[in-house]
Amino acid sequence: MSKVLVIESSARQQGSISRQLTDEFIAQWQKTHPNDEVSVRDLAQQPVPHLDEVLLGGWMKPADQQSEAEQAALARSNTLTDELLAADVLVLAAPMYNFAIPSTLKAWLDHVLRAGVTFKYTETGPQGLLSDKRAYVLTARGGIYAGSSLDHQEPYLRQALGFIGIHDVSFIHAEGLNLGAEFFEKGLAQAKTRLAEVA
């Protein structure tokens, strides 16, 4: 049995295409992996604070020198990191906001990309510690950006995930969603076909 961790980052609860893709992925995955455990963290309903001095204090100060706020920030970061460490499969649902990922997803990444936990520094440079995991990234985009210089989602997420050792990453893009009904239907259908293949 594998553990699947799904991270939702759309600001919308209703009418969200990335959430629709997530629902489709989970349904397809459970059909082919009925014994797997799927958990969902919704960053819109449970926002993660952005990286700040309090969290840095929780990471860097000895326990007996931490304030209550720093201890709480560290505990929150530990919870998020423990969820990731326990997962075999990571699913990131990421609508495109202003050519990139939602700030909520960036905040989550800032909590889980942690030296000594998900990566370590070596004499030859940083080394990711999560090489036993695979990831799927489900994106929803108003235009068509894959492979273009305006796509700041896929390159960034590949680098961030690769930095912690996750190199087996599949991207499923639903594109052209704001270009009219024909593009919308085509983009969504292509994404759902791809979801069925990878699940």
TrEMBL record:
Similarity comment text for this entry: Belongs to the azoreductase type 1 family.
Phylogenetic classification of the source organism: Bacteria, Pseudomonadati, Pseudomonadota, Gammaproteobacteria, Pseudomonadales
Record GO terms (molecular function): electron transfer activity; FMN binding; oxidoreductase activity, acting on NAD(P)H as acceptor; oxidoreductase activity, acting on NAD(P)H, quinone or similar compound as acceptor
Cofactor comment: Binds 1 FMN per subunit.
Domain Flavodoxin-like fold: 2-197
Binding site for FMN: S10, S16, I17, S18, M96, Y97, N98, F99
The protein, known as: FMN dependent NADH:quinone oxidoreductase
First-level EC class: oxidoreductase
Pfam families: Flavodoxin_2
Keywords on record: Flavoprotein, FMN, NAD, Oxidoreductase
PANTHER family the UniProt entry points to: FMN-DEPENDENT NADH-AZOREDUCTASE 1, FMN-DEPENDENT NADH:QUINONE OXIDOREDUCTASE
EC number: 1.6.5.-, 1.7.1.17
Reactions accelerated catalytically: N,N-dimethyl-1,4-phenylenediamine + anthranilate + 2 NAD(+) = 2-(4-dimethylaminophenyl)diazenylbenzoate + 2 NADH + 2 H(+); 2 a quinone + NADH + H(+) = 2 a 1,4-benzosemiquinone + NAD(+)
Function: Also exhibits azoreductase activity. Catalyzes the reductive cleavage of the azo bond in aromatic azo compounds to the corresponding amines. Quinone reductase that provides resistance to thiol-specific stress caused by electrophilic quinones.
Record note on quaternary structure: Homodimer.
Organism whose genome encodes this protein: Pseudomonas cavernae
Cofactor (UniProt): FMN
